[in-house]
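Model: You mentioned two targets. I'll fold them one after the other.
Researcher: Yes, keep them separate.
Model: Target one:
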Amino acid sequence: MATYRAELHVHTVLSPCAGVEMIPPVIVEMALAKGINLIAITDHNVTANIGAVMKAAKGTGLTVLPGMELQTEEEVHVLCLFDTLEQAEAWQRIVDSRFGKIPNDVEFFGEQFVVDETGDFIRREPRLLITNVDISLEEAADRVNALGGLIIPAHVERRAYGLMAMLEFAPPIFEAMEISKHVSVAEACKRFPELLAFPLLQSGDVHFPDGFIGVMEFEMRVPMISEIRKAIHGEGGRSMRIVPGN
């Protein structure tokens, strides 16, 4: 087994709420500086910058998983994590088929840049990315699992886009839940006792270079979705833990 310090919720400059500094080389540099060797790129409803971050991380020892932070029709954010760019792109095609066509208001929401592995500008994403996609939580879970991915509700205790605040219950279709960096496990479970029934992960929901917290540690053989799933469930000697103060 190996130890992976992870940050599974990282935005790039493609997310309008992220800093313009969140380009691939900076993401890789800051993750490594925090001792993190496993990240997932999870921009809002899109995957276009993942390949660039994967290229920037090549040869550094940092594993980059393709992902997405989907905003469902219930206005809940869920992390959709995959092993390969091909899986993520297949998921993107499903999302695109159910995506609205509201143009981005740069002055109000911010820029949405697609960049290359050096951070150089390629194009602007014209659609507003922070919007609901016409996919339910249940359908998202079914489809992501069918593609071989893993789906985890994000920052579940938050009032904005958090599962518990929006639904006021925790559907048993999920294998784990993510809490935000603003609460401890004890605080989150005190507010929402239903969370005691789920394995809990924590992330920095990284929007700026100083946002990496790297408090998740996984003991597993390789940094793959199947191993993360086993670690979540404590199977075959795999495990995960939140190590505050990393």
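Model: Target two:
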Amino acid sequence: MVLKNIKYAIRNITRPPVTRMYPEKQSELSGRFRGLQILDKSKCIGCGICANTCPNAAIKIVKAPIAPGSTKQRWFPQIDIGHCLFCGLCIDQCPKGALSSGKEYAKGLVKWKHKDLLMTPEKLAREVDLEEGDEK
């Protein structure tokens, strides 16, 4: 058994390593990967179909400014990422295609407190930085 393992190790010395040094080297994602949702505020009509479709009730419709610095407000989805399944039903059911799936799965989503996982319309529209919540 020991000789078999030594023989296996010697045979694989010249092969490239299969482990990756995360987060320095990130994984390649498939085209079908569903990460954090992206909101296009210009397309969103605030109908709430995404909130009604969500199986975990992670989406709420809240009032938010239509653009950074604007005083005019409209209804937009707000997603609690701590409860989101990333199933994509909200994206499939959006009648105007305002929600889409992004590729973020680690940056800005790893938090210590659950209240920090609340993705406001500004964060979903990427108007503020996901990690710090500061305006760009």
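Researcher: Noted. Anything on target two?
Model: The two ends are 59 Å apart (CA to CA).
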